[in-house]
Amino acid sequence: MSATLLQMSEIVVRYGDLVANDRVQFDIRPGEIHALLGENGAGKSTLMKVLSGLVKPESGRIEFHGRPVHIDSPVTALQLGIGMVHQHFMLIPSLTVAQNLCIAARTKAGFFPDLRRIAREMRQLGDRYGLEIDPDEKIANLSVGQQQRVEIIKALYRGAQLLILDEPTAVLTPQETASLFAIIRNLTAEKNAVIFISHKLQEVMTISDRITILRAGVNVSTRTTAESTVEGLAEAMVGRHIQLPTNAHTVAAGAPEVLRLRGVNYTNPRGVTVLKNLDLAVRQGEIHGIAGVDGNGQDELTRLLSGLIFPNAGQIWLEDQQITHAPPAQRIRAGLATIPGDRQRTALLMGRSLSDNAVLEQINQPKFSRAGFLRFKAISAFTQSLIAGYDIRCQSPEQTAGTLSGGNQQKLVLARVLERHPRLIIAVQPTRGLDIGATEYVRSTLLDQCARGAAVLLISTELDEVLALSNRISVMYNGTLSQPLERATVTRDQLGLLMGGRPLAG
């Protein structure tokens, strides 16, 4: 690697009294994969928004190809050769790959780009970097990994020499991740540079050349990957030793079943059968993991178990109660608790106070309301106990949930759910978007619940998480569930094959 491609010096960004970036230094060289790490709120997103033209720094200097540049908009960033592939893809599912590129190409090729020329140039890019995709295929028919390739091709087509990849492996199978890493290496072999943002430290160790760590808005370390360890990176990120817990508990084969699904089918309002003949059992004291790529029926399974939708066939049992068509309130009273996958949209009322959110599921209980009147002192005292017991970092119970960090929002959800001592916990993506410190807390909390005898159904696209926490694992693909596999004997490659819809040999 030679001279610096990008140099960011003394970058300062403030939001009121909060210093999001405090004189941050960051550089990347041609042909380099530079990982950017940090806890939630450490300043990574802010720094990348500065580089992408979305945020104007209070002070600092940016040089690209050795020349000072002023990046005042995303268009300017693209014109310079800086492209970003977001975690949530910006593609139109009903259009073909080439048509999506046409939309991206309008600023490059005029208002009416030549579709055939773009398809031809796209094939050339695909051949050059190992990004083969059929230009005439609709986005809706592509796998998640293939859609990500389209996003990368879009950035390259617009002239990107520096790619920012934000959590690029969050929803990929192990095989798709390996393919992505091969593509990244092809890109950097031609002197393109990649900024790799991820919470997955083992992947960072595999793919990166150097690593920069931000903590509380400050660059605390830039080091080569060769001189780094996963443990050292985690400690630098949070300022203390971190050891992510794993499940060492053995569940007896004869442990009672807390949740049972038998022959469950669900057909959505459009007439599509989304869940197909599901059989599942989760035992007392067990974490049963459901692995799979997003969009294979996990959302419908969660809603069905929570009582938001009902099956067209089959039965659901919670211990000795059949709850197949029971409403959510009845399921809560029977001992079911759900940690939704999207804490901001389906778990919390972001504009309401912590107190309001703390009692959402229990507001009708006599200790919180009587004769139609809320007992505000009792609600406040209860919320204070949750804040203290679950270490929720906040200013007061009247603070709105939307002002908390992601980790503290998740702690609030956990506190509300677990304070009821549920018999069954549906945990959906419980650590999605959380830094390693918050992830440690959530994992420990779920393991503690199993130790007291609760059953946990863990639905997650994070394969490392499923492997670390589960006693048994089923894979969800195209609305079906595989037979349960014992964590002690299953391999990542086996799960990856099942996640891609391929049966295991033998």
Q: Can you give a write-up of this model?
A:
The chain is of the alpha/beta class and 506 residues long. The chain has two domains: 233 residues, P-loop containing nucleotide triphosphate hydrolases (Rossmann fold); 176 residues, 3-Layer(aba) Sandwich (Rossmann fold), CATH 3.40.50. It is built from 17 helices and 23 strands. Strands 13, 16, 19, 20, 21, 22 and 23 form a seven-stranded mixed sheet that branches. α14 runs parallel beside α15. The radius of gyration is 24 Å and the shape is globular. The chain starts with 5 loop residues before the first strand and ends in a 7-residue tail after the last helix.
Q: How are the elements arranged and paired?
A:
Blueprint: E1 6-15, E2 18-28, E3 33-38, H1 44-52, E4 59-64, E5 67-68, H2 74-80, E6 82-85, H3 97-109, H4 115-129, H5 144-157, E7 162-166, H6 174-189, E8 193-197, H7 201-207, E9 210-215, E10 218-224, H8 230-238, E11 257-267, E12 273-283, E13 287-291, H9 298-306, E14 313-318, E15 321-322, H10 328-334, E16 336-339, H11 343-347, H12 354-358, E17 369-370, E18 373-374, H13 376-389, H14 406-418, E19 424-428, H15 436-451, E20 455-459, H16 463-469, E21 472-477, E22 480-481, E23 485-486, H17 492-499
Helix pairs in contact: 3-4, 3-5, 14-15
Provide the descriptors you would attach to this structure in a database record:
506 residues; alpha/beta; Rossmann fold; seven-stranded mixed beta sheet; six-stranded mixed beta sheet; 17 helices; 34% helix; globular
